[in-house]
Specification:
CATH class of one domain: Mainly Beta
CATH topology of one domain: Pectate Lyase C-like
Protein name: DUF4097 domain-containing protein
Radius of gyration: 25 Å
Strand content: over 45%
InterPro entries: Toastrack_DUF4097 (IPR025164)
Structural class: mainly beta
Shape: elongated
């Protein structure tokens, strides 16, 4: 029994050595970071001072160390070419306004409480940002992107995944191959496109000309204020619905739908109606001018669905 206990104790020590490895280094004078990894998650947080701390928790064995190069204010980090199999989790503690380029074959990236200039590219993985501001460009082949309390310029693309956000300000340009675009409590200029999926924007205050398009899915916008900029909404085979949410429209409005398969509804009378031949289709178009003075342009369109203002 005593020998068995000794054996188990030694075995537990060996397991801890294999599965509890950590690499950590700190650097000063860093303006730019480039991190390239094959398969790993990454968490980016605000440092307590002006230095950069790089931490790697892994299960790759006690001899493993990543390749780290530091020169002229730039920190370059990448996997060792002889990387064994195992799990990796990066943590970057960086000051505000640091420039970061993150490239991963697969893995999630999480950023919080930071002002940052970020370019993020991953084959597959989720991107999550909480209380972040700055310039962000993110691309993932398959994964979701989520913003919570964001302010800045944000460009994102996902092949298959959703893009969502709450409490968002700035300039937003997003594209989904297949997935949903959903933003709530937004004061921004937004350009949103999805190949197959829905677009849903609620409590939306337009801070610039905005446009939404879905190849096959519904596009719905619920206003948070009278639009002060142009708005375009279109769906190939779905509904385009603008909910005024009690706010007046001071706008020149164009609504269109397929005569054969579509429908147009609004709570006001139209000033003009026409039918336009486009290829082998007949498109209904209805026009209205609401309000007075300087007006914005609002357009709603659908191929085989309902274009509706309510």
């Amino acid at each position: 029994m005593k020998k068995t206990t000794t054996f188990l104790f030694v075995m537990l020590i060996s397991v801890a050595m294999i599965y509890g490895q950590k690499f950590e280094q700190s650097f000063s004078g860093i303006d730019e970071i480039q991190l390239t990894t094959g398969s790993a998650d990454c968490r980016v947080v605000k440092s307590s001072g002006t230095s950069v701390t790089v931490t790697l928790d892994h299960t790759l064995g006690s001899d493993y160390e990543p390749i780290v190069e530091h020169r002229n204010g730039k920190l370059v980090i990448r996997d060792n070419d002889k990387r064994p199999r195992g799990d990796m989790n990066w943590t970057l503690s960086i000051p505000d306004n640091t420039k970061l380029k993150y490239t991963a074959g697969s893995g999630d990236i999480e950023i919080e409480n930071l002002t940052i200039d970020l370019t993020s590219i991953s084959g597959s993985g989720d991107i999550e940002m909480n209380n972040v501001s700055g310039n962000i460009t993110s691309t993932t082949g398959s994964g979701d992107i989520e913003l919570d309390n964001f302010n800045g310029d944000f460009k994102a693309n996902t092949g298959s995944g959703s893009i969502s956000g709450d409490e968002v300000k700035g300039t937003i340009k997003v594209n989904c191959g297949s997935g949903t675009i959903a933003f709530n409590n937004v004061q921004a200029e937004i350009k949103g496109n999805v190949g197959s999926g829905n677009i849903r924007i609620t409590n939306f205050i337009l801070a610039g000309n905005s446009a939404f398009n879905s190849g096959s899915g519904d596009v719905s916008v619920k206003l948070g204020a009278t639009p002060a900029h142009a708005l375009s909404m279109n769906s190939g085979s779905g509904n385009s619905v603008l909910d005024r949410n009690g706010h007046a429209l001071n706008a020149d409005i164009v609504m269109s739908a397929s005569k054969k398969n579509g429908k147009i509804t609004a709570p006001f009378k139209f000033d003009k109606e026409e039918e336009v031949e486009e290829g082998n289709r007949i498109i209904m178009k209805k026009y209205a001018s609401l309000g007075s003075g300087n007006k914005v342009e609002i357009s709603l369109g659908t191929g085989s669905g309902t274009a509706q203002i309510k």
